[in-house]
Write a structure and sequence with these properties.
With 68 residues, this protein is α+β, with helices and mostly antiparallel strands. It contains two helices and two strands. It is extended.
Length: 68
């Protein structure tokens, strides 16, 4: 794992949504220096799709492998 476990902060929030069902949200945080070690930085813009999606078989094969 590229991060020290002490660097990772995760929280879980739960609540009833507008539809009346329970929902949960995960919040994962890392210090900026931990991201910089991977060549990332906290001021990067949000990721955008820059190419075509993988072929359909790729996703289907990933799901088959996950069930093994």
């Amino acid at each position: 794992m590229p991060f020290d476990p002490a660097e990772i902060r995760s929280d879980l929030a739960c609540g009833i949504g507008r539809d009346g069902h329970w929902h949960g949200w995960f919040d994962v945080r890392l210090p900026p220096d931990a991201l910089r070690r991977l060549g990332l930085h906290p001021d990067q813009p949000t990721a955008r799709v820059t190419g075509a999606s993988p072929p359909r078989w790729w996703h289907a094969e990933a799901e088959r492998r996950a069930r093994r």
